[in-house]
Design brief:
With about 40 residues, the chain is α+β, with helices and mostly antiparallel strands. The chain has a two-stranded antiparallel ribbon with strand order 1-2. β1 and β2 form a beta hairpin.
Length: about 40
């Protein structure tokens, strides 16, 4: 997470199906939650 004068960027990686330590399922819940509370995707 990084902060700027006019906003904030939250990076949720896509993950990689070929790497069992970075499966997309690990990140999908966080991404969906942030979208559900109104955070805009850029």
């Amino acid at each position: 997470m990084t902060r700027a004068r006019q906003g904030m960027i939250i990076c949720v990686p896509e993950g990689s199906p070929s790497d069992h330590t970075r499966l997309p399922e690990f990140y999908d819940g966080t991404y969906n939650y942030l979208k559900s509370i109104g955070i805009e995707e850029i």
